[in-house]
UniProtKB/TrEMBL annotation:
<feature type="active site" description="Proton acceptor">
    <location>
        <position position="194"/>
    </location>
</feature>
<feature type="modified residue" description="N6-(pyridoxal phosphate)lysine">
    <location>
        <position position="194"/>
    </location>
</feature>
<dbReference type="InterPro" id="IPR015421">
    <property type="entry name" value="PyrdxlP-dep_Trfase_major"/>
</dbReference>
<dbReference type="GO" id="GO:0000271">
    <property type="term" value="P:polysaccharide biosynthetic process"/>
</dbReference>
<dbReference type="Pfam" id="PF01041">
    <property type="entry name" value="DegT_DnrJ_EryC1"/>
</dbReference>
<protein>
    <submittedName>
        <fullName>DegT/DnrJ/EryC1/StrS family protein</fullName>
    </submittedName>
</protein>
<dbReference type="GO" id="GO:0030170">
    <property type="term" value="F:pyridoxal phosphate binding"/>
</dbReference>
<dbReference type="GO" id="GO:0008483">
    <property type="term" value="F:transaminase activity"/>
</dbReference>
<dbReference type="InterPro" id="IPR015424">
    <property type="entry name" value="PyrdxlP-dep_Trfase"/>
</dbReference>
<keyword id="KW-0663">Pyridoxal phosphate</keyword>
<dbReference type="InterPro" id="IPR015422">
    <property type="entry name" value="PyrdxlP-dep_Trfase_small"/>
</dbReference>
<dbReference type="InterPro" id="IPR000653">
    <property type="entry name" value="DegT/StrS_aminotransferase"/>
</dbReference>
<comment type="similarity">
    <text>Belongs to the DegT/DnrJ/EryC1 family.</text>
</comment>
């Protein structure tokens, strides 16, 4: 019987760097600065160098990262924030936390990222409904950056803040700019399954705006002012733990190599599956971090069941778009509904993807997927 296949093999990566991670954790245990230890500042500096961002603020999760940026922007009830509906719930959730209104926008059928044309129409519709357009959150789905030049033009014309939700794309790039330096600010997640993940929850915020960075650092720590007991604004407890920062520093040291491996694995999938399924499209100017490798297939659920019978793990990201989820159905959508989001939810299928997927295992996956699609 063949060995089980991991959808994301975190164990293989851990085996590679376990000795270094053990030393890094032991160092934190020795100095005892479990909150705001020196590893936090070192990680923020290295992330800034990697992404080309002037200011990086580590925080407790990718969701908190979104919320902190929106809090710093002073988001309030009556404000409209434009969010793609084909994504994880955190993007819309952070907007709703603050009493603002998420307006769900359709996505491009090739990239799965926010459709700029539908965004323009959605902004006009929101104004007609009495909302005040305030912000666009562009999600870099499955690792590929959104169309930031087009989105930025719209935001500049409309006076909107552009926030890059890079929870899945850290390590990716668009033209000569790396993720983290796209948009007016960016956020990412270090959830364990992400391309750069820790061993718990974690996230980061990227900006070139020094005043915003200072504001977010205060918000991250209960709204603290110069005196630790004088809280000058309403904040939250959104700090990144020192142990997670120490782990991320060791993972960041091998991250470039892992991105090369992810690209090679994705290219192999494309070459062997493009004749039986719709394989991922990555624009010429874009570099994906390949958080997921996602096909579009006919009769998706049957294909998935056949893969499961063959011992091939698959996932569906995402079976229910945000605008159809119970807690979010009452929020507005752009005009004409969201037909692309609805179609994607019915036919996307993600295959195992991680930097340690060897060719023999990938061949087994490819053969089983081709057989499953053939029926």
């Amino acid at each position: 019987m063949s060995d089980p296949i991991a959808f994301i093999d975190l164990g293989a990566q851990q085996a590679r760097i376990r000795d270094k991670v053990d030393v890094a954790i032991a160092k934190v245990l020795d100095h005892g600065m479990y909150i705001n230890g020196p590893e936090i500042l070192e990680l923020e500096a290295q992330l800034g160098t990697f992404s080309g961002s002037e200011h990086v603020i580590g925080c407790a999760s990718g969701t908190d990262a979104l919320g902190l940026v929106l809090m710093a922007r002073g988001l309030r009830p009556g404000d409209a924030v434009f969010v793609p509906a084909f994504t994880f719930i955190a993007t819309g959730e952070a907007v709703a936390w603050l009493g603002a209104t998420p307006v769900f926008v359709d996505v491009d059928p090739k990239t799965f990222n926010m459709d700029p044309r539908h965004l323009e129409a959605s902004i006009a519709t929101a104004r007609e409904q009495g909302l005040k357009p305030a912000c666009v959150i562009a999600v870099d789905l499955f690792g590929q950056p959104a169309d930031y030049p087009a989105l930025k033009d719209i935001c500049d014309a409309e006076g909107l803040f552009l926030l890059a939700d890079a929870a899945q794309s850290y390590g990716g790039a668009l033209a000569d700019k790396r993720v983290g330096s796209l948009g007016d600010a960016a956020t990412t997640s270090f959830f364990p399954a992400k391309p750069l993940g820790c061993y718990g929850d974690g996230g980061a915020i990227f900006t070139d705006d020094a005043d915003m960075a200072d504001h977010i650092r205060s918000l991250r720590n209960h709204g603290a002012g110069a005196d630790r007991y004088d809280n000058v604004r309403i904040g939250m407890n959104g700090r990144l733990d020192t142990i997670q920062a120490a782990i991320l520093l060791e993972k960041l040291a091998i991250f470039e190599e892992e991105l090369v491996s992810r690209q090679r694995i994705a290219e192999r999938y494309n070459a062997t599956l493009e004749d039986v399924a719709t394989v991922p499209f990555v624009g010429n100017a874009a570099k994906s971090a390949w958080a997921q490798y996602t096909l579009r297939v006919a009769d998706r659920d049957a294909v998935r069941a056949r893969c499961q019978d063959a011992g091939i793990p698959t996932q569906v990201y995402y079976p229910i778009p945000l605008h159809k989820q119970t807690a979010y159905k009452h929020y507005p959508t752009g005009p004409g509904g969201l037909p692309v989001c609805d179609a994607l939810a019915a036919d996307v299928l993600s295959l195992p993807m991680h930097p340690y997927l060897d060719e023999a295992t990938q061949d087994r996956i490819i053969e089983s997927v081709r057989t499953a699609i053939a029926g």
